[in-house]
Amino acid sequence: MDIATTTAAERIARVLAGTDHSANAAGTDPSASEAVDETWPAYRTQALAVLRTLREPSPAMVAAGDAAIWERMILTAIDEADRG
């Protein structure tokens, strides 16, 4: 299993920034990596909102695994972002 080297909040914020900047999504930049590197912190609040939404797993997610572990992992990701 791969393990990320950045926080979940940063990865989500980078995806949101990429969506706004990249020509592959809603943006116009054919090579948006520099813009994403510069702007992702502005998307941090939205990223935390996504994480807070994910605290509650769907019934299918509960059926696939342990809901208590899921909740602890998401709460840890939120705490990690709040500390950073």
Q: Layout of helices and strands, plus pairs?
A:
Blueprint: H1 8-21, H2 33-39, H3 44-53, H4 59-64, H5 67-83
Helix pairs in contact: 1-2, 1-3
3D architecture notes:
The protein is mainly alpha-helical and 84 residues long. The chain has one domain. Helices cover 64% and strands 0% of the residues. The protein contains five helices and no strands. Helix 1 packs across helix 3. The model has no long low-confidence stretch (mean pLDDT 92).
Which descriptors apply to this entry?
84 residues, mainly alpha, 64% helix
Question: What is the compact description of this entry?
Answer:
The protein has 84 residues and is mainly alpha-helical. The chain is built from 5 helices and no strands.
